[in-house]
User: What shape does this take?
Amino acid sequence: MIKQMTMHLTRNNDNDGIQVMAKVELNHLHQEQTFELNNNFLIKELKINDETIDYEITKAVEIPFRTLCQRIHFKTDYDFNAFTVSYQGPVDGWYNEISDNYIGLNIYSAWYPMINAFEVYDKTVYLHNFQEYEVIKAVEEDHLVYRSLDFDANIIAIKNWFTKKFEYTGSNFNLYINPTEGNEEELSEQIKTTYENVLQYLKDQLGLPFEQSLNFDLVICNNPLHDGGYFRKNLIVLIKASSDPISFSRFLAHELGHNWATGADVMSFEDWLNESIAEAIAVSYLKFTYGQETYEKYMKKVEKYALESPAIRTPDNSRPEGVHFKGVYLFHLASKEFGEDIIVAFIKIFVDLKEKNTANFLTAICSKLGKEVHDFISVGLTN
Assistant: This one.
């Protein structure tokens, strides 16, 4: 639906919010349009060409994966395929904040217009008043510019952080740590080793396809206001690097696994595939690196959450609860029934799918692994 979006993002001097002017270009002509923004924002102006347009606002709208939003709707008596909206205000949401040493803005705050969330299209952000910050994945042109690499306009700006960049043949690994403990140099070497070990497993043991040139960023925020982590193309953002090397390596393997465990609809029940395959990659690495006993110990924890969670296949096709645990536990049960190599087989089947959904996944399982395995997974989705 969206052809491209161009934004001018200005940071307030006192870090109490942002100002944005966003031009949204659509693929087709329309006479009305609806979009969502963060509920905190004050809409200053909405225009088509140079004409100011009236609009209606519905406050406190709940949208999956986003903080509380407002819905903006407008209608005209003529066709248009672009509009511009200006707004300002504070931001909130998972991994969204503005402080003296860190600015994080992403899709979870709805800081830019949401029409079809998670739709991949060209997003260009011109950054103003960011001179004191290093903006990850931004480039200096006439202005400081961030160009989206995937579905999100994910702005990460840091100041006075520990940074270390490791160069390999044809690739780079860039590490950014918010310094809190004073052991960042030692920690960076531990993280580098874990990163290298996980990548080697993915390449050599799983045989997953890699880009010829990989420029990967890992951001560790060390902020108790957030938890967990998230993945974007060639980027992982974590709350912290766990002091437990086994726990950290599993988490890193999961997030790195999303390079391949992606493509299914994240807004529906189909997201079980993305998360289950990523976790399957993680537990496979866990078993390979730390042995069967460590794997079984972790799967006992997974079992608890999986048994407490509802069925993966939801009646209304919505995203299921427990999606990070239920699917990989189903794969684990399948490995007990059909052999431990079955989990790696599931990973490779998903990665090879052109159109990633449950129906195609099950069809491929039936073709490559047999009807008995197909039926086991199919029934398991409803239990």
Observations:
- The chain has a mean pLDDT of 94.
